[in-house]
Amino acid sequence: MDLSFLIITYSRGNFEILNNCVSSIRKFYKEKIVIIDNFNTENPNLGENIYYHSNQSNSYELGVIFEASRLYPNIDRWITIHDSCRLIDKIPLDIYQENNNLFIPFWCDVPESYSPVMPKFISKLNSISIDYERYSNKDWQSVCGLMGIFDKSIIERLKEFNLNLIVPSKKIEAVCSETLLGFFINNLLEIYFEPIHDGPISDYIHGKRQWTFIQKFAQGLGPVNFGQIKISKDYKIHPSNLMEFNNQLSQDELVDLIVKNIISDDERVDELVYLNADDNILLFEDCNINGLNMHSLYLMARHRISTYKFFRKNYNKIYN
């Protein structure tokens, strides 16, 4: 079996983090390492049996996986990680086992964690003629960072369903691709998978769980080119159009009030969910309550309301 590690990086010419990742792999494995770098044109010399490429399409993690399979069609299995992660032990399974449908993510999360990107998610499916409504009652798992073990056959089958035609071009679309990948494998390929780790990667980052064989040690260098939109009183969701806020309320109580008042009006729900969905940023003009920034409160409220809109059956279970 021809196996290779695939490192996704956004080095911008700074190879310190990338070198750390490569060195950690070399402590345990001698296999080929393929590096595909978004947003960089330099060509560093990183050692023997290491192959560096610049991804000219700058198509984030999802594009890197398909680009690697195009450059190296004879690779049977890919182990995909970000340069901001490092191995601290051998992968706790036989990475050489024969299985033509093998897909094992390192971490997974529920799609509700990605609720704010659902307008983008549905738009991307529509662009390749897949009707989300056919699958809206089905469950799936999102793949954190698109990191895991991919058998070649999985990548080829994803191409048959045109996932390779979805090309992320901004950060929010890269985030969206994490839940798109799981959706395709669970619902279109009809393959059920179990991640190596229990819980999402965020649990490990925030110290709720202990790192095992792989650890995120650095902040990723992926670009965050968010746009901005200012919310004036012309919007139905502006605080002044919702209620009189009590200055004694806590942050959580304020979020609860925002959610309660928006959910009571379908037009308000859609206004918040779809507002600037391309960039996922909200701003308010001169609007602070009791020293709390309304921008932050509304981002939290939008996540809950997006879950209410797109994952209604699980909303009460999650938030009650």
Structure report:
- With 320 residues, the protein is an alpha/beta fold.
- The chain has 2 domains: 3-216, Spore Coat Polysaccharide Biosynthesis Protein SpsA, Chain A (Alpha-Beta Complex), CATH 3.90.550; 230-319, no CATH class.
- The protein contains 10 helices and 14 strands.
- Strands 3-2-1-4-9-6 form a 6-stranded mixed sheet, with helices on both faces. Strands 5-10 form a two-stranded antiparallel ribbon. Strands 7-8 form a two-stranded antiparallel sheet.
- Helix 7 packs across helix 9 (294-310), helix 8 packs across helix 9 and helix 9 (294-310) packs across helix 10.
In total, how many domains does the architecture comprise?
Answer: 2
Q: What is the CA-atom radius of gyration, in angstroms?
A: 21 Å
Give the ordered list of helices and strands: EHEEHEEEEHEEHHHEEHHEEEHH
CATH class of the largest domain: Alpha Beta
Overall pLDDT: 88
Number of strands: 14
Spatial strand arrangement across the major sheet:
3-2-1-4-9-6
Specify the biggest β-sheet.
6 strands, mixed
CATH fold descriptor of the largest domain: Spore Coat Polysaccharide Biosynthesis Protein SpsA, Chain A
CATH architecture field of the largest domain:
Alpha-Beta Complex
Structural class: alpha/beta
Helix content: 25-40%
- Any idea what the shape is? globular
Q: Indicate the proportion of strand residues.
A: 15-25%
What is the number of helices?
A: 10
- Span of the ends, CA to CA: 49 Å
Low-pLDDT windows of residues? none
